[in-house]
Amino acid sequence: MSDGPSPERPPGWSAEQPPPYGAPPASPWTAPGSGPQPVSYGQPYGEQPPPPPPYGARQQPPPPPPPPGAQPYQQLPPPPGYGHMPPPQHLRPGIIPLRPLGLGDILDGSIKFIRSNPKAILGMSALAAALASVPVAIATAVMNGQLSTLSRDPESISSGGMIGTVVAGYSGILISAVVGFIVTTVLTGILTRILGRSVFGGKITPGEAWNLVKGRILALFGVVALVGLVMLAPVVPLVALFVILGLNTSSAEGAFGLIGLGLLMLLLYAAYALFFNARFAFAAPIVVLEGRGPVEAMKRSWRLVSGDFWRVLGILLLTGILAYLVSSVLSIPFSFAAQLLGVTGADGVGVIAISAVLIAIGSTLASMIVYPFQAAVAGLLYADRRMRSEAFDLVLQTAAIEQQRQGWVHSSADELWHPSNAARS
């Protein structure tokens, strides 16, 4: 052994003395080139180089760039901080987001539907409303004129003339009901077809919508007629029972009891009408968008509503209240002016004509807003029920992404509403 210092050992080194503070010796299991890197102590925090990957770990290559034209609708912003998860962004190519809808989404989508193509939608609604309101407006104006004459000179109108006036008034109401049944059924089909394309952000003209709907008109009339028969089914026996009880009642106590029974019947019928109106609310959209027959459409509407009956009923009831308020605000001033003109104005055909025009204008303004709004609510509520029960939002999202990639909405989007395209049944 040599007493001098070894060239591999520093002077003063001994087996009992630890080596100077520094980097630890390299491990024999460390891969070449992946040993610990020297650390400069005293560097500010955050400026140290990232640690090397463990031995055997593979470096993941960076993701490839997206192909041209495959950008999504919305680019998500980076999270603002560690642990923060931003709310998910949903596709919204058209009037609604492609996910299960809330009440606000349905009402907002209905308004956006009208605003997306106001000339076509409001124009068709105004035409349908005018056709339905003109007969009843004329009849109402004639009745107002006769009542005005009767109030000033009770002996100027004979009993036969008064009966003729009443018959003419109710005839106008009946004609308006028939015309309204026809035009609103056709209008519902056209608006539903336009709505189906608006969900994807596409537009369709009334002529194109009519070409797509005209093959379903008979089925639409069938489903409206069947739903009407269901609604009127209890009316005949209830009225007959009320008349029979009324003929057999002579005392005051019996009269009050009959009035109470009539109110009870009215409440029961209101509950009956609300129940079946909610159950068959989707029958018309199903006929138009899915191409089903009247009976099949009513059965499918019953099944779709069964999963969320009270929510559907509440939204439809709220929509009806909103439609009534809007209709009243728009039509009452014109009706009041017509009645005021009939009471204080001069007699003659001119007064009757002006009154009829005022009533028709008020009814048309009210209906041109209410018709498309209610049709849109029913259609969007139908889409929401399919999203919740059939995962239909996945189908809509996939189609929307493909249409975004292509840059336009193809007419084949109408076929996506067929139930065979549902993610699950």
Automatic annotation (TrEMBL):
It holds the Pfam family DUF7847. Keywords: Membrane, Transmembrane, Transmembrane helix. It comes from the Bacteria. This is DUF7847 domain-containing protein. Residues 104-377 form the DUF7847 domain. Residues 1-93 are annotated as: Disordered. Residues 17-27, 47-90 have a biased composition (Pro residues). It comes from Nonomuraea endophytica.
